[in-house]
Structure formats: structure tokens, C-alpha cells
TrEMBL record:
Transmembrane segments: none annotated. GO terms for biological process: translation. CDD domains: Ribosomal_uS17 (cd00364). The keyword Cell membrane does not apply. This is Small ribosomal subunit protein uS17. Part of the 30S ribosomal subunit. Coiled coil: none annotated. It comes from Devosia ginsengisoli. Keywords: Ribonucleoprotein, Ribosomal protein, RNA-binding, rRNA-binding. One of the primary rRNA binding proteins, it binds specifically to the 5'-end of 16S ribosomal RNA.
Amino acid sequence: MPKRVLQGTVVSDANDKTVVVRVERRFTHPVMKKTVRRSKKYHAHDEANVAKVGQVVWIEECAPISKNKRWTLVQDASAPSA
């Protein structure tokens, strides 16, 4: 089964080797038929402490690293892929 990859915005980089990423999803409300935005925060492992607040990044599912961290930083979304 492939690992999930999500795109989100860094909202906190205060912890060492950890970033908090807000991932937003959009869906149509089943009754109101309006587009609704919902967001969720994920703790992601950032080994090199490269991500800064406001950056758009990709995170990937991984094995548990700590109590809250189950995601790891893949790369900065604005950086060109190699």
C-alpha cells in the first residue's frame, strides 16, 4: 500500500526537528451543497530544521517517530524537484 502524501502550510517550527503542518481539505456539504473548508494539523519530522513558518511543504506518512509524529517532511513544495 502506498504512503499518503499531503500538501500543507507550516504553522509552527518552534520544536527541534519537528514542524506543525496545517493541511486543508475541501468538500461539498451533503445538505447545503456548499463548498466547505476543513483543516487539520499534523506533526511532521524535519531532520534538518529547514522548514519555516508560512512555507508550503509536502509531508509523507511514516512509522511512528514519537507520541504525535507519524509524518515526515518530504520537501519544500516551492523548491524544484530533482
